[in-house]
Amino acid sequence: MEIVIITGMSGAGKSAAVNVFEDLGFNCVDNMPPVLISKFIEVCSSAGTKFDRLAMVVDMRTGILFNDLFDEIIKFRQSGVNIKILFLEASDEALIKRYKETRRRHPLIKSEGSLIGAVKAEREKLSSVRAISDYVIDTSFLKTKNLRDQIVQKFSSSETALQITIISFGQKYGPQLDVDMQFDVRCLPNPFYISELKQQTGMDSDVYDYVFGFNSAKEYYRRIIDLVTMLLPQFCYEGKTNLTIGFCCTGGKHRSVAFALKLGEDLRAKGYSVTVIHRDIDK
Question: How far apart are CA 265 and CA 239, in angstroms?
Fold first, then answer.
């Protein structure tokens, strides 16, 4: 299990950070009291691989309970738990400006009496946790996209950085509106007109072999896989976390299914996380 604790200065970008972790496939919890971390990990561990990546925001909003975070981290590390600490900070000037712009209430302002005093007190209280953090990011001059890029670079892998969905569908049943890239394979010979193949689908080897038995299909697919594999690293670099590739034919049962199936297999072999959906295969 991979566990990340997101902490740091109030107003430094923890809310934006947790959104990135959700896109990377982490199960996220905001405003987690340190005393409940071990119990939460225990519950998720018993649930199996569904919760194999956890991210928790722990900060001063928990009040006096936050004081237990340092001891909890040390305890986890001594017991061999794979836990990383991401600490977000910013200059006093940047934090004060952000609070004035958003008009939000600093969690320590009641006890410290002023925003400046609250920021300084929080920085002092967080110093011990900052000292043992695995990653420290200063967001004073970072845009949200820049913060996202840094988090993706540090916490994503080829398997998790980009979640790819490949969907086959029949154009006669309507378009698939959410595709980022779409390839029309209606230009290829149609197994529908072969009597022994008509009732089968692209999932069946006879249909699959028929579709890719033509040089035109082989060449078309070769150009598609070259284009897609060239673009995927660029999507990852730009911070894209979800990509949908569509294949359409007339009925969504034969040619588009075979192409979607083959691309899914080839991209998985390259280490990408791929889900293949055949929208109209049963129609």
Answer: 24
The tens place of each residue's pLDDT in the chain, 283 residues long, gives: 889 999 999 999 999 999 999 988 899 999 999 999 998 888 888 876 678 889 999 999 998 899 899 999 999 889 888 899 999 999 999 999 999 888 889 999 999 999 999 999 999 999 999 999 999 999 998 888 888 878 887 887 655 567 889 999 999 998 888 899 999 999 999 999 999 999 999 999 999 999 999 999 999 999 999 999 999 988 877 767 778 999 999 999 999 999 999 999 999 998 888 889 999 999 8
Domain count, the chain: 2
CATH of residue 98's domain is: 3.40.50.300
Burial (CB count within 10 angstroms: exposed 0-12, middle 13-18, buried 19+), residue 89: buried
Same domain, residue pair 50 and 122 = yes
